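Lay summary. Proteins are chains of building blocks that fold into shapes, and those shapes determine what they do. In this project we predict the shape from the chain. Here is one chain we studied, written as its sequence of building blocks.
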Amino acid sequence: MQMDYLNYPYQSQRMTAIANQGMVATSQPLASQAGLDLLKKGGNAVDAAIATAATLTVVEPTSNGIGGDAFALVWMKDELHGLNASGPAPASISIDALKHKGYDEMPTHGFMPVTVPGVPAAWKALSDRFGKLPFHELLQPAIHYAEKGYPISPTLGRFWEAAVSTFQKKLTGEEFSHWFETFAPKGRAPQIGETWSSPNHAATLRSLAETNVDSFYQGELAEKMAQFSREYGGFLSLEDLQSYEPEWVTPISVPYRGYDVWEIPPNGQGIVALQALNLLRGYDFHEKEAAETYHLQIEAMKLAFADGHAHLADLAHMKTSVSDLLSEAYAKERRSLIHRTARLPEAGVPTRGGTVYLATADKEGNMVSYIQSNYMGFGSGLVVPGTGIALQNRGHNFSLDKAHPNALQGGKRSYHTIIPGFLTKDGHGVGPFGVMGGFMQPQGHVQVVMNTLDFHLNPQAALDAPRWQWMKDRTVWVEPHFPNSIAQQLMRIGHDVHIQVDGSAFGRGQIIWRDNETGTLYGGTESRTDGSIASY
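And here is the predicted shape, written in a compact code that computers can read:
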């Protein structure tokens, strides 16, 4: 990438990180440092990503865990590889079974939305194919923090307190008691600066390290998950865990301003970001802080989400092809629906979710864009007894409408919110980027890409720039530092603009760009959370 943005007048007050040996960007300083330590031991970007991801399950449990799902884009030896480590619904579950239990829609918590966890399988698959160091070494930092503890950072503490407060009101069944024993052992959330540890989590990580993850899908941990599920009427079985394998997939892309923007194909919602960019590349943007710029971004996003909620599902069950959705002919057709005033496309209601995103790069030019999540913060509210494993609630995204492509079905993967992004130019890797946070994610991807390629902002400025989020109908949330004059102009053309003071509503992102001429790495980290870049 030509680093022409370094002297651009509109830049962030925070400095872009610059290094050339290795870089790790995450939402947690301890996790960033864990990944850097592995790079310094001779590991590559994949080793660093696995170590960082494992550590994040401990130091940011409010957003991810061993019982969640993961996706990765790996740039290795001048080629981009995609990994889909999202787990399917249990084989025995069905719409009729849930309706027989009295459900008219997918519940948020408990065993009904629990799907097979893919995170441990993702770590193993990445290590087996691309790692340099022994797998057991990669989990040692996570084991250390789970066993010895670490002090709670500010954003983490705030999320944790909010989750405990909500769960104390909503999760009253006996099956949820293990969550409270694990994450609120004193009857409350750990406070900022207070040290928290989880011996059970440490023991589980040690088991994964010693068995190369086999205990999670074939052995003792799998049996404990299946037993817990049976005890409380869940559908997750030992057979579901034993049969699970992550899938290597071919990434999808669209061209944008001379670059190629890459995402994981469905069941992930990365195609929503690509569709929006496909619409937006039909316009010339001359000014970032202009009402027309924001209007076109928002309207393109609405149209992309309308398609996403109508068509996206497990790829094997989609009735519309990816190539059709990303074709220029379809983009031209959809672009014609964008007018000078705000419109009401049919779409679902975006909700907020909990996820962690990380980016790594090594001195050899290898880079990883990685994301993992339990969904909606702590996930299902279930912790497998004696393990520290918080189970995800990803099945909440299934539809109970049998005619919908995303209809609940045993062995099927749901529409998935978590998406890693990657940028290339002329066949060369530029770098990983991502913005975590439920349905904010494709919206964050579009804004970060445009900030970089249309408005030439450096990585830190691209992340720090004020964000918007389309919510539903004509409702748009903006941050407090969003330009007031532009917000008023948007309202005059029909947008229902609301200032949202909670910065977490707008996602949390990381970026690493590589200058392929010099090998220099440029990184940005999220100012809306406890973001950190470790580099050397």
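What the prediction tells us: The mean pLDDT is 94.
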